[in-house]
Q: What sequence folds into this?
């Protein structure tokens, strides 16, 4: 019985070519690009090779996944229309999280005959761990470069200090967010080749500067401007994100009156 089940599961797996991968990307493009998102494919195996067992995604190593990134314009293209047109203040869920759930639901609708699993950056497993480490996902997809403490040649910190890693985007520096992943559990793409992320920083000094800014001064936004960027968050978006979550409702009410 068990063997039969495994066989049935294997039979459901669809092997796709790079041309068919492009067709999937075209459908995602229609849903995500107008809302200010980017997306980049990778294989589950590339991610699982990097993370500890407890964070591994339970799929075949060739399984197709996309990481979804919000660019600076997502706020104007998706979030403001969402909060002003659809309303979100009755729910207790964070408005941005509600907006992301709404946007990701469009992905599932675009693939009615396909099994599609989406995981948001804010989702936790029953053991309270993040369900997906989006920074590692972004790095293995080649979309962003994940800079971690262990990349430093010379580490000045006390070994007991916690130093969080941070990703940089080649066009947007730190002005973006990693919103989650889209998994196609029944699709494998053996031909997909890994893309190395661009090396954005040139020296150990720059890396140390980035990690210091991200860990100790993230509220001043300067880690995001560590390289020249194509686009930043608007003043309105910066005002929203620098307002405490509990006080953002007033801002949303203001946006509704203005719209
Ligand atoms: C929990 C969390 C926090 C916690 C703890 C931070 C942490 N990194 O642990 C707190 C509340 C402190 C926090 C704060 C912030 N956060 Co935060 N946070 C998260 C969250 C939800 C999970 C991170 C986590 O728990 N990681 C677990 C640890 C173990 O992962 P790890 O350190 O990466 O370790 C793995 C890698 O090292 C990997 N690995 C090992 N070897 C190798 C080798 C390679 C090459 C690779 C690629 C990987 C790899 O294996 C390890 C796991 O086994 C993520 C979203 C997500 N779902 O990923 C956002 C996230 C990391 N946060 C983010 C941000 C922006 C912030 C803040 C600036 C606040 C904000 N939202 O504006 C601050 C900045 C930090 C600070 N100075 O306080 C962004 C970072 C974006 C970026 N550019 O990288 C994320 C990705 C959210 C997002 N939507 O974009 N955060």
A:
């Amino acid at each position: 019985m068990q063997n039969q089940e495994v066989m049935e599961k294997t039979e459901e797996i669809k092997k796709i070519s790079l041309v068919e991968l492009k067709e999937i990307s075209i459908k995602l493009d229609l849903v995500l690009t107008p809302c200010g998102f980017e997306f980049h494919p990778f294989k589950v195996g590339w991610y699982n090779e990097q993370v500890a067992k407890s964070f591994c995604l339970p799929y075949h190593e060739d399984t197709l996944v996309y990481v979804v990134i919000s660019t600076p314009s997502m706020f104007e293209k998706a979030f403001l229309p969402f909060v002003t047109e659809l309303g979100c203040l009755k729910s207790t869920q964070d408005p941005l999280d509600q907006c992301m759930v709404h946007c990701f639901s469009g992905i599932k609708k675009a693939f009615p005959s396909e099994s599609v699993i989406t995981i948001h950056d804010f989702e936790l497993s029953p053991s309270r761990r993040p369900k997906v480490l989006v920074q590692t996902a972004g790095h293995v997809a080649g979309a962003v470069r994940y800079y971690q403490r262990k990349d430093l040649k010379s580490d000045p910190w006390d070994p007991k200090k916690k130093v969080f890693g941070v990703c940089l985007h080649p066009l947007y520096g730190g002005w973006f967010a990693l919103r989650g992943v889209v998994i196609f559990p029944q699709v494998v793409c053996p031909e997909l080749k890994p893309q190395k992320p661009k090396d954005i920083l040139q020296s150990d000094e720059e890396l140390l500067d980035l990690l210091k800014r991200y860990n100790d001064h993230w509220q001043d936004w300067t880690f995001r401007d560590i390289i020249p960027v194509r686009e930043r968050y608007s003043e309105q978006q910066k005002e929203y994100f620098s307002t405490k979550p509990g006080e953002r409702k007033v801002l949303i009410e203001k946006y509704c009156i203005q719209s």
